[in-house]
Amino acid sequence: MFVRTASARDVAAIRALLDTAFAATYGALLGPSAAASLSVERNAADVLEREIAHPSGEFIVADDGAAIFGLAYASADRTGEALTLHRLYVHPARLGHGIGSLLMDEVLNAFPDARTCGLEVAAGNARAIAFYRGYGFRQAGEPYGDPAHVRMERALGSDE
Question: How would residue 159 be classed by pLDDT, with cut points 50, 70 and 90?
Answer without folding.
Answer: very low
